[in-house]
From TrEMBL:
Name under which the protein is recorded: Transcriptional regulator LsrR
Domain of life: Bacteria
UniProt keywords, alphabetically: DNA-binding, Transcription, Transcription regulation
Organism: Martelella mediterranea DSM 17316
Taxonomic lineage: Bacteria, Pseudomonadati, Pseudomonadota, Alphaproteobacteria, Hyphomicrobiales
Protein family according to the UniProt entry: Belongs to the SorC transcriptional regulatory family.
Keyword Mitochondrion found: no
Record domain RNA polymerase sigma factor 70 region 4 type: where: 15-51
DNA-binding among keywords: yes
Gene3D superfamilies: 3.40.50.1360, Winged helix-like DNA-binding domain superfamily/Winged helix DNA-binding domain
Pfam families in the record: Sigma70_r4_2 (PF08281), Sugar-bind (PF04198)
Length: 326
């Protein structure tokens, strides 16, 4: 607030200095020379003008709408942060790559030497790894959150972990076990193997966790690339209220784990077990991910979420519709 006891001459001089510095972009030394003032006097006038509220800085960005969407998503959920990328194309792959690039930047902003990074498989995680270019090497360890699935490039979490570690200049540890065991007993046995247990223990306490968000609707799902499921079982899962795959686990619409046989055979860290991670980052893109994203948000599994503009608009619209119905 402006001090009314400030004498007119000092106020006029302060105003002149502030205009020259903030509006005309002059350096303090240039202002001192023009007004025949000492450099320290110019510095004091600027500092005093700030304290008196004479300086207001407005930042305009062409992406203001994205910032507003980020704030709206955080306000509507338990997230601590969100990053929204512009939807630049009708091509789903192009938008996915944009989201992956943003997620790669978030990883680089948050990673520290000595960190453990835990990751899942998935197309969005693969896009993140593809777009990560570090300016320096980081002393990090990258570990999988799940057992492995051979086949498509994005289902092989061990390969993704290795690629991410290579791009960061760190090392990767592998889980030498399948994602799905043949029985619950075999699953427990595999998870108790020292080589698997040690990796999963690191994953549970990771500094950063990077996860995809999967759909189980047949039209857009890559869950069935992990484990082939008969068509009648797919319909039954939807009928039971399963609406997302997260860390290879089937999740009910309210956010809890589904009591479904496949979940009991998963060689993987459970979603509830990553609550101790410093930051859990979710990444997703596409209209078929709207319901799964809501489901994962209902479970409060994430600290940060990275989406494209079209997807987040659909998520927020659906949240508002659900609120009005309730």
């Amino acid at each position: 607030m402006l001090d009314h006891n400030l004498d007119f001459e000092t106020a006029r001089q302060m105003h002149t200095v502030l205009v020259l510095h903030f509006l005309e972009g002059m350096k303090q030394s240039e202002i001192a020379q023009r007004l025949n003032l000492s450099h320290s006097k110019v510095n004091r006038l600027i500092a005093q003008g700030r304290r008196l509220g004479m300086v207001r800085i407005d930042i305009e960005t062409p992406y203001q709408r994205l910032m507003e969407l980020e704030a709206a998503l955080v306000q509507a959920t338990s997230l601590s942060s969100a990053v929204i990328t512009p939807t630049v194309s009708a091509n789903a792959e192009t938008n996915l790559q944009q989201v992956g690039k943003a997620a790669a930047s978030v990883i680089l902003e948050n990673v520290r030497d000595g960190d453990v990074i835990a990751i899942t498989g998935g197309k969005a995680v693969s896009a993140t790894v593809d777009n990560l270019v570090a300016d320096r090497s980081f002393d990090v360890t990258v570990v999988p959150l799940t057992g492995g699935v051979q086949g498509k490039f994005y289902t092989d979490v061990n390969n993704l972990a290795s690629r991410l570690a290579e791009r960061l200049g760190g090392r990767a540890l592998m889980v030498h076990a399948p994602l799905f065991a043949e029985s619950r007993a075999q699953c427990e046995m595999l998870k108790e193997m020292s080589s698997v247990r040690e990796v999963f223990d690191l994953a549970r306490a990771a500094n950063l966790a990077l996860t995809g968000i999967g759909s189980i609707e047949p039209s857009g799902s890559s869950y069935y690339d992990l484990n082939p499921v008969p068509e009648e079982d797919r319909k039954m899962m939807v009928g039971l209220g399963v609406s997302a795959e997260f860390m290879a686990h089937l999740i009910l619409e309210g956010g809890s784990l589904a009591n479904y046989e496949l979940n009991s055979r998963l060689v993987a860290v459970a979603p509830s077990e990553i609550s101790g991670c410093r930051t859990v980052i979710g990444v997703a893109s596409g209209p078929h991910k709207v319901r799964p994203i809501q489901t994962v948000l209902n479970g409060k599994y994430l600290d940060s979420l990275i989406l494209d503009e079209g997807t987040v608009n659909a998520v927020l619209t659906e949240m508002e519709r659900s609120k009005n119905v309730a």
